Amino acid sequence: MPSRLIVSRELADLFRLLAHADRLRLIEDLRGGEKDVTGIAQSLDLPATRVSQHLALLRAQRLVEERRDGRNHFYRLSHPHLAEWVLDALPFIDIRQRLEDADHIDTARALWGVPDRNPH
């Protein structure tokens, strides 16, 4: 029983970290491979300072790795399958969103290159 409690707490911490739309988008952006902060900021249309703050949180939990090349900082997912795991959650939001506006999910799937598993 204590093992399940420890693992459950660790998972809860991970879910809290991932419970931010910018961080989820950042993880998906890094699915394609290594990027620098400026490239991520441009891709996500976010200020570079905000991207750096999110990356620091993800790096502290070892979800992203950093490589420095001079003044440039490049980031990649430590576990690339994390992005796939996030995408695997799309059917869970389909239930809620299909009632309101499915276009958002379909557009995200298209941008992220994910096939629509529940065509309407």
Mean pLDDT: 86
Q: Kindly identify the CATH topology of the largest domain.
A: Arc Repressor Mutant, subunit A
The main sheet orders its strands as 1-3-2
Approximate strand percentage = 5-15%
The tally of domains stands at 2
What does this structure look like?
This protein has 120 residues and is mostly helical. It folds into two domains: 2-78, Winged helix-like DNA-binding domain superfamily/Winged helix DNA-binding domain (Arc Repressor Mutant, subunit A), CATH 1.10.10; 88-120, no CATH class. The chain has seven helices and three strands, in the order H-H-E-H-H-E-E-H-H-H. A three-stranded antiparallel beta sheet has the order 1-3-2. Helix 3 packs across helix 4 (48-60).
Question: What are the main properties of this structure?
Answer:
120 residues, 2 domains, 3-stranded antiparallel beta sheet, 7 helices, 60% helix
Summarize the structure.
The chain is 60% helix and 12% strand. The protein is mainly alpha-helical and 120 residues long. Helix 3 crosses helix 4.
Write the layout of secondary structure elements.
Elements: H1 2-18, H2 21-29, E1 35-36, H3 37-44, H4 48-60, E2 64-69, E3 72-77, H5 81-87, H6 90-97, H7 103-112
Antiparallel strand pairs: 1-3, 2-3
